[in-house]
Amino acid sequence: MNRLLFLFVFLACPTLCRADLVMSPIFGDSMVLQRDQPIHIWGWTLPNQQVTAEVGGSKGSAMADGNGRFDLMLDPLSAGGPHEMTIVADETKDFRDVLIGEVWLCSGQSNLAWPVSNANDPDLESLTAKFPQIRLISVPQVASQEPLNDFEGKWEACNPDTVKSFSAVGDFFGRRLHQSLDVPIGLIDNAWGGSAAEAWVSRDDLEKAGQYEDLLQHWDEIVANYDHEAVMSRYQERLTQWQQEKKGARPRAPRNQIQSNHRPANLFNGVLNPVLGYTLRGAIWYQGESNSTRAHQYQHLFPLMIQTWRDRWGQGDFPFYWVQLADFREEVVEPGDSTWAELREAQTMTMSKLPKTGEAVIIDLGEASDIHPRNKQDVAKRLARWALANEYGFEIPYRSPMYRSVTFANGKAVVDFQYVGRGLDTFDTKEPIGFAIAGENQKFFSAQAKLVGRDRIEVWSDEVKDPVAVRFGWADNPVRNIQSLDGLPLTPFRTDQWKGVTEGVTH
Q1: Does the pTM of the predicted model rise above 0.85?
Q2: C-alpha–C-alpha distance, residues 351 and 390, integer Å
Q3: How many Å separate Cα 364 from the centre of its chain?
Q4: What percent of the residues of the chain are helix, what percent strand, and what percent coil, each to the nearest 5?
């Protein structure tokens, strides 16, 4: 049966009796199953059909429900393989070359989707991608308001050909794990460039949260009034005129708003649901640029997204590590407002709201003129540090220094920090750079600073006699030079809670 036709029939008529055993393509030849955890297997067959699954000596069974959906669990297996998996229902399916190892989901927007072919040293990275025990699978970009269960994709071994189009951060992260652990690694890439966080959350969960009425109404109005045929007709008229006159830039084809990667729930249903429930170790995430103008909202939205994923996965609080926004646009020396700084703050705050979360700070790895910095290798290393230290027990530095407390006296601020490792350090210049200080009038001035201990910095400005607030790295692209002796940059922060420029922005 044509795949798209099957999908339509499957979604529209879930109770139809099927003569076939149907499974998500996340189950297939060359897949990696998560080691040392119960393995979740699911699919669809005849209603009330007995189903058994077996791999590596682990066997499980379950009865399909009245709609033909079955879910069964296999006992944990140790790393190894290759094995063969057999599923027996009204028919039998065999999956070959199955490995048992570590499985990670790689998700987010374009900086996570950015392929190896566009990262630094793409020729060398591709030539050296000879890792037959690293397996890759990508979920195509299909938006939907209804949960999808099918997609076009298959598992492939990491080699010089397959790696070129795969997520660079995902691949480099996976290589570090594989070389450190010496076990198979499975990487699932479902990132979508330009996507907004609300697109990764189900409509039900957004409604239950009670904070997104304006956002949902905004999108309901867009969809109700959107006529894609009319939009395309106007575009064709502009394109024809341009082809005749050849004046200015070629008109860009409009995007279908109904299928937008910003529309709430579109990506949760389209690219997450088909793999949701696949037993994994954890997830890495790189996203936030598309939500920067609503950074204050992100303080709640981002933790909500993570929690709803965990709740729907049914696997407890699996590790979730993300990349904080990099530095971007022209460098800023004078203090001012910044939507990107507020988004970074929202990301950092999430670590205090949810367990088993972590943030790779890359405020030193961005490019002023490119929102897609090509140095994905160091981004992946910082994510890998979190995973290797917290999930696999390696005693390595992994967490960037963070603000802990501040005291004000005699016209100066003394700021204490935590997670400093072997101590705070500066690079390029001896004096710490990147601080701003303000009094009660909330007007910030660039500040002088000096290290007064391994975890303490003194900050002051002759322009502020009685300071009450300190900020560090508070700009889209701040000039700053503080890191730990382990080379991990100081996390941007502010000590005040004054109203930001994104507060009150809902859509």
Answers
A1: yes
A2: 14
A3: 19
A4: 30, 25, 45
In this prediction, residue 19 carries a pLDDT of 52
Residue found under tokens 């279908």: 256
Q: What is the pLDDT of residue 20?
A: 84
Length of the chain: 507
* Residue 82, preceding peptide bond in cis (omega within 30° of 0): yes
What pLDDT was estimated at residue 486?
97
Contacts with 187 (C-beta within 8 Å, 6 or more apart), sequence order: 103, 104, 106, 134, 135, 136, 137, 166, 167, 170, 171, 173, 174
Two structure tokens written together for 281: 């170790």
- pLDDT tens for residues 301-336? 999 999 999 999 999 999 999 999 999 999 988 899
In b/e form, how buried is each residue of 110-121, taking b as 16+ CB within 10 angstroms?
bbbbbbbeebee
User: Amino acid identity, residue 3?
Assistant: R
Rounded to a whole number, what is the largest CA-CA distance in the chain? 80
Which helix (H) or strand (E) covers residue 166, if one does? Answer: none
Q: Which residue ranges of the chain lie beneath pLDDT 70?
A: 1-19
Using the structure block, give the residue that is written with the tokens 């951060």. Answer: 169
The encoded tokens of residue 154 equal: 């298959």
How far is the C-alpha of 36 from the C-alpha of 75, rounded, in Å? 8
Looking up tokens 């699932």, which residue turns up? 188
- What pLDDT was estimated at residue 356? 98
**What residue ranges do the domains of the chain occupy?**
213-261, 402-494
- pLDDT at residue 290, rounded to an integer: 97
Q: Which stretch of DSSP H or E encloses residue 267?
A: helix 266-267
Asked if 455 and 475 touch (Cβ cutoff 8 Å), the reply is no
d(CA 448, CA 461): 6
d(CA 20, CA 1): 11
Beta strand segments in 314-391, E? 320-323, 357-360
Q: Report the run of H or E that residue 350 belongs to, with start and end.
A: helix 339-350
Q: What whole-number distance in Å separates Cα of residue 323 and Cα of residue 358? A: 9
Q: How far apart are CA 110 and CA 426, in angstroms?
A: 31
Please say whether the beta carbons of 63 and 51 come within 8 A.
Answer: yes
Take residue 501 and report the two structure tokens written for it.
Answer: 């420029």
State which amino acid sits at residue 302: F
